[in-house]
């Protein structure tokens, strides 16, 4: 074999001490041959990424790419991919997900075409990850700039109990792409597919992400227990959900898994009682540590189809406000809880209804999750696509937006400003656990309105939220609180 492996070395950065760079050169002697290039995968690896490139004097030279682990063949992408990722939960199309055994793996390089006198120099960067955190299916932000991004954080596909009509008009388990099509039709920027207690949908999301390159796909799952449901956003690794069993004896055990993986956990539809319509719904978990809960689904799509809308008999708003009154800073979000894609054809139901609108530094998984954690969120109950609610508070030269805390000593003036667009005919309302001033002019007459009101700090902890209601009094937009003297 005249193929020369020029370098097999550790990268210099300490944080990536076990990552590798493989380089070599193919010559005419390698034409129509396969070369297997060995490399070591360390124990405990949970994700492996290979970035492959080659150059040569002859632009028609081709090197195909595949990989073997110590036990089996793991995939072949030929010449159609320059990189691939394999993890225990999902993998780049062409490759098989599953455990990554330690030991000697081999890059399989095929040379279907290399002319006489030509050389092809290749480089393969091999990166190993050892934790359960996951940065996203997209290597770069879909949009790198700050902005308000609209999404749906709760939806189901055929990987659990999501259905749609087949070509012959039968209700069948619905493929993931139908949910993504519905999200794009609703004008969303991001979605999280949260099938019950499974991550199988993530393999489909990995495959679909390059095609839906204008829609951020965030991995999720709905932890469905006998005592309540909760979404987990971000991680792809398996997690125990059998609350009350030896595998997950307490909620704290589940929360520890989520935290270790860098994910967020959100209580779903806490106001809906458990029953035949929704087994285990409501929230009856004992000894729940709400300081380790990042979000609560205060508006569920099912509630919107009942009298009262967002404030129907199964609304999650009272549950959320009780936690706020107890001193917890928890972000209020919405989710369609879509189970039937066909209902998305109806204007007031389905994917994106309601919409969670997030003020993030970029349209990327880390930025969206960080903004949700911070509370920089409002809920567009009617999925308007264009309504905007921006709320800020200022006192003592400091400012805060929704989700932030602001110092307000006794007697200090606090100036609250609300900017609302595309809500003509609606009106502002203020909610909180302390004195709430009355707006002199709460009515929103135009499509771009700003209102300001001043309160006086009393040195105590309080929360204050600005909402927008329609002419019938129903909620259009639900803001997240600004916390006065909060930690």
Description of the structure:
It is built from five helices and 29 strands. The chain has helices at residues 176-185, 201-208, 251-260, 317-325, 365-374, and strands at residues 4-10, 20-26, 33-41, 47-56, 62-68, 73-78, 83-87, 103-113, 120-129, 147-152, 163-165, 171-173, 190-193, 216-225, 228-233, 264-267, 295-300, 331-335, 355-360, 377-380, 388-395, 398-401, 405-406, 413-421, 427-432, 448-456, 462-469, 475-479, 482-484. Strands 10, 13, 14, 15, 16, 17, 18, 19, 20, 23, 25, 27, 28 and 29 form a 14-stranded mixed β-sheet that branches. It has a five-stranded antiparallel β-sheet with strand order 1-2-9-4-7, with no helix packed on it. The protein has a four-stranded antiparallel β-sheet with strand order 3-8-5-6, with no helix packed on it. Strand 21 and strand 22 (398-401) form a beta hairpin. It is elongated, with a radius of gyration of 26 Å. The relative contact order is 0.10. Residues 1-17 have low confidence and may be disordered.
Main attributes of the structure:
487 residues; mainly beta; 14-stranded mixed sheet; five-stranded antiparallel sheet; 5 helices; 29 strands; elongated; disordered N terminus
